[in-house]
Specification:
Elements lengths: L29 H5 L1 E4 L4 E7 L23 E7 L1 E10 H8 L12 H23 L10 H4 L6 E2 L2 E2 L9 E3 L9 H15 L5 E4 L1 H8 L7 H4 L7 E4 L2 E4 L6 E4 L2 E5 L8 E4 L4 E5 L18 E8 L2 E11 L6 E14 L6 E3 L5
Parallel strand pairs: 1-14, 7-18, 8-12
Antiparallel strand pairs: 2-3, 4-17, 5-6, 8-13, 9-10, 11-12, 13-18, 14-17, 15-16, 16-17
């Protein structure tokens, strides 16, 4: 009788997966982590932008009549809420089999519905971090920096900048791709200070742009003045925020330049965080008390937590009606980015990085 060797293909074994499920996507939301958050109310984001107009007489005669009379102008700012959501669906059979997989793992799949809810929050956060730069603000879309501080001639929040020059941001656009220089950056920061009396505290840029800035430093001095540990510590509303995991930052003249994967390449966005924030419209649960058609058990609040930690977004998880053997939900967020003093911010275009 011949001998049959036992090989892997002839052995019946249970398949065990090591540890946890390993996410491959980069969901980091650097810019959203650095901004402050405010709770909104009502049908939109609204404030009044005040200009100039008071009459001033310098060196008037003792008996001269007052003819130069005026008052400061006021213009209303109205910005729609942005509606955003991520949608998930998991079959009942998938949840049941994952939940009974026991020691064979992966560990995270034993709570498959929870895992998918967290993934939805992460992916929505990452998408909103991108929209914070490029969102066009039309209808219910998020209004990003390109609309808020990227032009001196557009309309933002209903205010036409062409006729409200004090509501204009600083915009530097050489027209063609141009090498970055220290003189350009110092000029940008100085002009923003001249326009508003304030300087930006952070500047967001693509990793290629940060590399272009880093290359301007003398290699012997770069560590001291450039990518040193203190450059990675940034104060936020929620305490000191440390950029970990290779995120680069350069402290230049008191402004921290921070790289973000979602920032368009070739741009620098100068941000004064005293005047730039994310406004969030919470779901007012008390309004729904006594409404028999509303089931509060079907609504949950979930925090988005990327590798930097939890963010106070106030995401809502709504469980949708079932008509199949599966659970469906949407993770939704009502919010928008607001800039109440665009002249304290600015953007540089066409950086050859």
């Amino acid at each position: 009788m011949g001998v049959t060797p036992q090989t892997l293909s002839t052995i019946v074994l249970a398949q065990k997966y090591r540890g946890d499920v390993v996410r491959q996507a980069n969901f980091r939301a650097v810019f959203l982590n650095l901004l402050n958050y405010q709770t909104g109310m009502g049908q939109n984001i609204a404030f009044v932008a005040e200009g100039t107009g008071v009459g001033v007489d310098l060196g008037y005669g003792e008996t001269a009549s007052i003819t130069n009379i005026g008052s400061a102008s006021q213009t209303k700012f109205l910005l729609n809420w942005s509606t955003n959501r991520a949608n998930i669906q998991v079959s009942g059979l998938a949840q049941a089999t994952a939940g009974t997989s026991g020691q064979y793992g992966p560990d995270a799949n034993t709570m498959l519905w929870y895992r998918n809810t967290i993934n939805a929050a992460l992916q929505l956060t990452s998408s909103m971090n991108q929209q914070a730069y490029i969102g066009d603000g039309l209808n219910q879309d998020f209004c990003g920096l390109l609309q808020a501080i990227g032009s001196i001639s557009n309309t933002y929040g209903g205010i036409a900048r062409s006729s409200n020059t004090l509501f204009q941001p600083y915009v530097a656009n050489p027209g063609t791709p141009t090498a970055l220089s220290f003189a350009q950056i110092r000029g940008d920061l100085a002009q923003i200070y001249i326009n508003s009396g304030r300087r930006p505290d952070i500047a967001m840029c693509h990793p290629n742009v940060l590399s272009a800035l880093a290359s301007l430093y003398d290699p012997q001095k770069f560590y001291m003045f450039g990518l040193n540990p203190m450059s990675r510590v940034i104060e936020t509303q929620r305490g000191d925020f440390t950029l970990q995991g290779g995120i680069g930052a350069i402290d230049f003249d008191g402004c921290k330049f921070v790289e973000d994967k979602d920032c368009p390449d070739g741009y620098i966005f100068y941000i004064n965080r005293d005047h730039v924030w994310i406004e969030v419209l919470p779901m007012n649960m008390s309004v729904l008390d006594g409404d028999e058609s509303y089931d509060a058990a079907l609504v949950r609040e979930i925090y988005s937590q990327d590798e930097f930690g939890p963010l106070p977004f106030g995401f809502q998880v709504d469980i949708l009606a079932k008509n199949t053997d599966s659970d469906t939900a949407m993770v939704k967020w009502y919010s928008n980015l607001c800039v109440n003093r665009p002249n304290s911010c600015g953007v540089r275009y066409n950086i050859n990085a």
